[in-house]
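Justification of computing resources. Each target in the renewal requires a structure prediction run like the one illustrated here; the chain below, 476 residues long, is used simply to show the kind of job we budget for.
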Amino acid sequence: MSKKIPYLKDWLPYAKKRHIMYMIATIISLSVPWIVINGNHLFLLSFEKLKLHLLFVQFDMQQLYLMPFLLMILFLGIFGMTVLGGRVFCGWFCPQTIFRVVYRDFIETKLLGMRRSVKNKQKDIDYSKNGNKVKKVIAILIWTFLAFLAASDLMWFFVPPEDFMVYIMNPSEHTVLFGTIFVTVAFLVYDIIFLQENFCVYVCPYSRVQSVLYDDDTIMAIYNPHRGGEIYNDNKEKVHNKTKTLLEVEPQAECTTCESCVTVCPTHIDIRQGLQLECINCLECVDACTVVMGKLNKPSLVMWSSEKETLYQKGKTHYLRPKIIGYGVILLLLMVILLKMGGDKERMLLNVNKESRLYSISNKNNKHHVENAYIFLLQNTENEKHKFYFDLIVPKEYEGKIKIKKPTEPFSATPNVRKKKIVVLYADDVLVKSDRKDTIIPVTIKAYAIDNKKEIVVTRKTTFTYPKYDVLMKHK
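Resulting structure tokens:
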């Protein structure tokens, strides 16, 4: 091609770049659920086990305060991407687009030959020729298999693959899981084979949001009317027809009106008509025009550019502008907060509640023995069994006077099982001589794993109630 068309030398079509991106996205989506370190997944949101795995750290559902930050990063990232590059997410990353390329361009065209070329996406398949009806059935069967794989991959982000492989042996015991898979498969078959790009045009709300996010520096597929000529007037009506060609209307126009940019468009629009919500920035039209104009040794009339640079010709596109910097700063702050909160993750959960009885008093060895009882609800969020115990942190004047009566030995806790433990603290010295009211003494419980005291440790604040002196004296 480079010998015949010097202008296209070293040119790499956007379609090939997109296909590379599709392969990368597919590899990532299929491999992420299987990446596990020390029993923790790279990402997993398990509703069954009430766990969130993020960057190989396991969080209990009580710590799902991280999810809003993940969602904000996701949506702000897509919005920022839209401000910068239009609907580039739709054309380059969206599963809908990827699936349609797999079905239409690979299965129907390359594999089964139902279409003559991927360059004409607006011509319907003629099912009266070359056994296309049988091929259609084969295409549906192939896509149904791939849809099952895609639906299973989606479920792997919510059900660990190792558990999923066990569950498929007993589908009757996991009806919700398999019901979700079958519904997802049915939707993917209907969407990709029958609904097609109408999903992007009429169903997806993103196309309506994008127009609010665009500005004059947003880059997108844009036809250059200054070089190509005005194909449509202000009323979106063509300015030329069979009896009146474009060259007769505008003798300097470079557009050949071959309409390659139209026939190749998956959403069936004419990019020469201006900005349209249906455009998904797949840049197929840019590739088509590049080939046609390249044969004339001219640059493409359809470019990935901004309205400021191509339509209004007010200078170069500003990529690093205040709006983009703002999105970048917000995303960076959210990521820092997420990492900070994730780093502060508690590796055991502990709730400390006092019993309804404030205290109990007894007399032992001529000493007033005051007890406070507590209920510890502890959960080991690690993947292995640990033994736990705790220390008391009390004000200096009470150090050594408030002690642990029960339990006297460390106790074990299995992973992900809540353990209830009755804890009793006592004091056999006279702590306070107050005749007015009971004394509330602040106490901090420092619970830890015996075998990993540095890392698995939490603190909880509670109180030790000491009775009035006259109440204490009644127990002799």
